[in-house]
């Protein structure tokens, strides 16, 4: 039976992370399901007010062979990338165990959701990152059958949905605001930082699903860099 693992590690601790961390203000997210045995992270979204520094850093990375900006939506750009798989050692460790990246996003660290074909493959990945001293933090391990318990509309986790609903109902998005992150955090029983993460990531998930998922018939190629 396949198994899903959610984990994170600092962006600077592995080649792919370093190549995508040229601008800390830019948020990077992988495009949908990425099967590593077919193509190594072919598409990624970058979102920020100014992507020049990020794109320059990406192009100059030793693990990147080619970068092309293919779609622009507001302040988000979809990049098609070709990687030097011999140098991207961490992703090799996932690929060697037949892992499929289901989701991935970054700020100061990269967070991944990866599906392995069985527990033996997950054990192999565990042995790999320990042997190479990658500072992986495992956040959750579960079987795909449990996914229905964490998925609500738009792919929100239960925690994100509850916090986001409270923010909407209490007027956090109103003008003027009817509540603060501190008040939301107190009601939910988490820290202000945790509440902020849930609201921010939940909002981005909903907007991406609702907006970016609808651009197939109305896509605007990005300007050449």
Proportion of residues in extended strands: 25-35%
* Bulk shape: globular
The overall average pLDDT, rounded, is 81
Largest sheet: 9 strands, antiparallel
Domain Bacterioopsin transcriptional activator GAF and HTH associated: 3-122
InterPro entries: BAT_GAF/HTH-assoc (IPR031803), HTH_bacterioopsin (IPR007050), RNA_pol_sigma_r3/r4-like (IPR013324)
Protein name: Helix-turn-helix domain-containing protein
Pfam families: BAT (PF15915), HTH_10 (PF04967)
Characterise this structure:
Keywords: Transcription, Transcription regulation. Residues 3-122 form the Bacterioopsin transcriptional activator GAF and HTH associated domain. The chain has 225 residues and is α+β, with helices and mostly antiparallel strands. The chain has helices at residues 15-19, 52-60, 89-95, 119-131, 147-150, 158-169, 181-188, 192-210; strands at 3-10, 27-30, 34-35, 43-47, 64-73, 76-83, 100-106, 109-116, 137-142. The chain has two domains: 3-142, no CATH class; 151-214, Arc Repressor Mutant, subunit A (Orthogonal Bundle), CATH 1.10.10. Helices cover 34% and strands 26% of the residues. Strands 1, 2, 3, 4, 5, 6, 7, 8 and 9 form a nine-stranded antiparallel beta sheet that branches. Residues 33-38, 148-152 and 213-225 have low confidence and may be disordered.
């Amino acid at each position: 039976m396949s198994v899903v693992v959610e984990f994170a590690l600092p962006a600077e601790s592995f080649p792919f992370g370093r190549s995508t961390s040229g601008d800390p203000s830019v948020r990077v997210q992988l495009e949908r399901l990425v099967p590593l045995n077919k193509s190594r992270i072919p598409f990624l979204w970058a979102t920020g007010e100014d992507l020049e520094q990020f794109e320059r850093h990406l192009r100059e990375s030793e693990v990147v062979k080619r970068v092309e900006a293919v779609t622009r939506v507001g302040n988000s750009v979809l990049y098609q990338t070709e990687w030097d798989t011999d140098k991207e050692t961490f992703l090799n460790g996932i690929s060697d165990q037949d892992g499929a990246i289901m989701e991935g996003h970054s700020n100061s660290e990269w967070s991944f959701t990866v599906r392995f074909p069985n527990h033996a493959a997950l054990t192999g990945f565990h042995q790999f990152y320990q042997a190479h001293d990658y500072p992986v933090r495992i956040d959750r391990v579960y079987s795909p059958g449990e996914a229905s318990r964490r998925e609500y509309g738009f792919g929100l986790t239960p925690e994100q949905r509850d916090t986001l609903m409270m923010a909407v109902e209490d007027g956090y998005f109103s003008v003027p605001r009817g509540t603060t992150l501190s008040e939301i955090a107190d009601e939910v029983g988490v820290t202000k930082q945790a509440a902020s993460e849930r609201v921010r990531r939940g909002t981005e998930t909903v907007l991406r699903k609702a907006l970016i998922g609808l651009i197939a018939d109305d896509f605007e190629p990005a300007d050449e860099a």
